[in-house]
């Protein structure tokens, strides 16, 4: 009944029992079934010896084949899970309710700049420390407490070296057999590259690529917000529309590269000629706009326009040549939140053309 490879060991253990060296024994072994298949057994052996009689062995055997199969399947599952946990590309974590990290995988440790999972678990006593905005951690925990799961929760966090990165967390609540919440577990993905690209695309959608100034869409949005604020204050919003005089001549004579340098220089001078809270935008070509908030009257707006004109007159060196630039400026004011931004822009544009046509040829 005993497989050949186990017979020598079995005989030796049997001899030790009969010699009294082993009074009791409990082992797991394998025997051969009549059909030839192997059967896992748990065997308990006890030596009985009464005076004058030969020693006898009492053996109790239990078939544990199914249990061994279950254990083997469990080990395989645990090894598979451990392999996934250790080799996953995304971070995997478990935390206690108080924010203590219980386990993290190597990918998560690397993501946060730690040499090993053990170092990260030891160093982070509260996961809230990782968040640039700690309220985001509280928000994540509250959603999991309420809904039990949260997918794709985006937040900015700190690496060990202090560098900020963006992560997306998908997590679920952990509960014990009684339904009590005991912690959280989930995965973390580094989405810094995607968020950076999104920010770049958003910036390009609302800014002029040449000068970095707000474009028409962003300018109109800020004008709309400024008009809404006028109802709460006893002031006006002033809109200045600028068109450079003689730009086409400079662009044609010195080339488009020089023209681009001129536009950048004009943008820089416009920014330095207005207050910090004012908005300077480029609508396209050589057309610029300036939004002035909290303006008392037209005289104040005219004063700012004069300061802008004076700032532009200083010579600018382009391709080794000094050129001077001037601008025609149209001004319009509004103190009503009901005015449409597009209408104000059109009025300022018309005022600019009147200013340009009034100049001596």
Description:
- With 361 residues, this protein is of the alpha+beta class.
- It folds into three domains: 65 residues, no CATH class; 108 residues, Beta-Lactamase (2-Layer Sandwich); 151 residues, 2-Layer Sandwich (Alpha-Beta Plaits).
- The chain contains eleven helices and 14 strands.
- The strands form four sheets. The chain has a five-stranded antiparallel beta sheet, with helices on both faces.
- Helix 8 packs across helix 9 and helix 9 crosses helix 10.
What's the N-to-C terminus distance? 119 Å
SSE string, helices as H and strands as E: HEEEHEEHHHEEEHHEHHEEHEEEH
Total DSSP E strands: 14
Strand arrangement within the widest β-sheet reads 5-4-8-7-6
Q: Largest sheet at a glance?
A: 5 strands, antiparallel
How large is the count of helical segments?
Answer: 11
Overall spatial form: rod-shaped
The total tally of domains equals 3
Uncertain ranges: none
Specify the helix fraction band. Answer: 40-55%
What is the rounded Rg?
40 Å
Strand percentage, roughly? Answer: 25-35%
CATH architecture term of the largest domain: 2-Layer Sandwich
Report the average pLDDT across residues: 86
The top-level CATH class of the largest domain is Alpha Beta
By secondary-structure content and strand pairing, the structural class works out as alpha+beta
> Could you please say which CATH topology of the largest domain applies here?
Alpha-Beta Plaits
Classified in CATH, the superfamily of the largest domain is Reverse transcriptase/Diguanylate cyclase domain
């Amino acid at each position: 009944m005993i497989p050949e490879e186990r017979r020598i060991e079995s005989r030796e253990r049997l001899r030790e029992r009969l010699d009294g060296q082993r009074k009791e024994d409990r082992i797991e072994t394998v025997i051969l079934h009549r059909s030839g298949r192997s059967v896992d057994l748990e065997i308990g052996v006890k030596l009985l010896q009464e005076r004058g009689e030969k020693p006898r062995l009492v053996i109790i055997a239990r078939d544990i084949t199914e249990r061994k199969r279950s254990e083997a399947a469990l080990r395989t599952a645990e090894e598979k899970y451990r392999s996934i946990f250790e080799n996953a590309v995304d971070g995997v974590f478990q935390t206690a309710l108080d924010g203590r990290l219980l386990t993290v995988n190597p990918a998560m440790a690397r993501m946060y700049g730690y040499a090993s999972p053990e170092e990260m678990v030891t160093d982070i006593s509260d996961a809230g420390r990782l968040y640039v905005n700690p309220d985001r951690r509280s928000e994540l925990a509250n959603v999991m407490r309420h809904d039990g799961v949260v997918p794709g929760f985006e937040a900015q966090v700190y690496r060990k070296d202090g560098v900020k990165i963006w992560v997306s967390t998908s997590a679920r609540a952990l509960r014990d057999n009684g339904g009590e919440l005991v912690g959280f577990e989930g995965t973390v993905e580094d989405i810094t590259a995607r968020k950076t690209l999104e920010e770049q695309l958003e910036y390009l959608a609302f800014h002029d690529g040449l000068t970095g100034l707000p474009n028409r869409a962003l300018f109109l949005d800020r004008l709309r917000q400024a008009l809404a604020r006028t109802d709460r204050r006893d002031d006006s919003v002033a809109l200045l529309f600028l068109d450079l005089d003689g730009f086409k001549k400079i662009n044609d004579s010195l080339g488009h590269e020089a023209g681009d340098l001129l536009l950048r220089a004009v943008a820089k001078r416009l920014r330095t000629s207005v207050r910090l809270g004012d908005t300077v935008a480029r609508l396209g070509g050589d057309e610029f706009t300036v939004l002035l908030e909290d303006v008392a009257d037209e005289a104040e707006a005219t004063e700012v326009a004069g300061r802008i004109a004076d700032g532009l007159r200083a010579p600018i060196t382009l391709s080794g040549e000094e050129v001077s630039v001037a601008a025609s400026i149209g001004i319009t004011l509004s103190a009503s939140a009901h005015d449409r931004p597009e209408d104000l822009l059109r009025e300022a544009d018309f005022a600019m053309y009147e200013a340009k046509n009034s100049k001596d040829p």
